[in-house]
């Protein structure tokens, strides 16, 4: 590990008079699992958006949906970086959103009819993204990670 990496892995902690505490590996691993899951979930959303059955909505609806998903993904990534710094509230928000995303994705996986290619693309991106989110949520609530979140 380089000296820069070692320095960035240490963040000050505000637990009483403790000087500093190293970020647990579970927090870093959970962060990376979430960060990798975001593009998978965005891909699933875009596949569903572009391959919806029925009459096509106006182009402006597709554009606004694309802007919405981009802004939402940016907010999630921002929360991930705040969570990595030790903010407990971001872990709580990400956990709630992650559980809701996994439940919605699982129900959408089995209840929506899709053409074969979009179905495979959606299934792969949704399953991989959901597993990554579930793993990230699990790691962020382990004992060592739980003690890290103090802000």
Biggest sheet details: 2 strands, antiparallel
- Number of discrete helical segments: 6
Number of domains: 1
Helix/strand structural class = mainly alpha
Radius of gyration: 18 Å
Shape: elongated
Q: How many beta-strand segments? A: 2
Percentage of residues in helical conformation: over 70%
- Report the end-to-end length measured between terminal Cα atoms: 27 Å
Q: Which strand order does the major sheet show?
A: 1-2
User: Into which percentage range does the β-strand content fall?
Assistant: under 5%
Summed over residues and divided by their number, the pLDDT gives a mean of 85
- List unreliable stretches of 5+ residues: 6-20
Element string (H = helix, E = strand): HEEHHHHH
Keywords:
151 residues, two-stranded antiparallel ribbon, 75% helix, 6 helices, mainly alpha, 2 strands, elongated, 3% strand
Model description:
By secondary structure, the protein is mainly α. It has one domain (24-148). The chain is built from six helices and two strands, in the order H-E-E-H-H-H-H-H. The chain has a two-stranded antiparallel sheet. Helix 2 packs antiparallel against helix 3 (59-84) and helix 3 (59-84) crosses helix 4 (88-111). The longest helix has 26 residues, at 25-50. It is elongated.
């Amino acid at each position: 590990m380089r000296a820069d990496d070692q320095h960035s892995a240490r963040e000050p902690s505000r637990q009483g008079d403790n000087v500093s505490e190293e970020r647990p590996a579970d927090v870093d691993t959970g962060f990376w699992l979430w960060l990798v899951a975001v593009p998978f979930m965005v891909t699933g959303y875009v596949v569903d958006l572009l391959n919806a059955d029925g009459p096509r909505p106006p182009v402006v609806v597709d554009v606004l949906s694309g802007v919405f998903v981009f802004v939402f993904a940016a907010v999630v990534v921002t929360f991930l970086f705040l969570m990595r710094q030790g903010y407990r509230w971001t872990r709580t928000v990400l956990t709630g959103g992650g559980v809701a995303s996994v439940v919605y994705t699982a129900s959408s996986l089995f209840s929506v009819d899709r053409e074969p290619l979009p179905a495979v693309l959606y299934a792969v991106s949704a399953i991989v993204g959901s597993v990554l989110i579930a793993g990230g949520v699990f790691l962020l609530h382990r004992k060592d990670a739980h003690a890290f979140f103090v802000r």
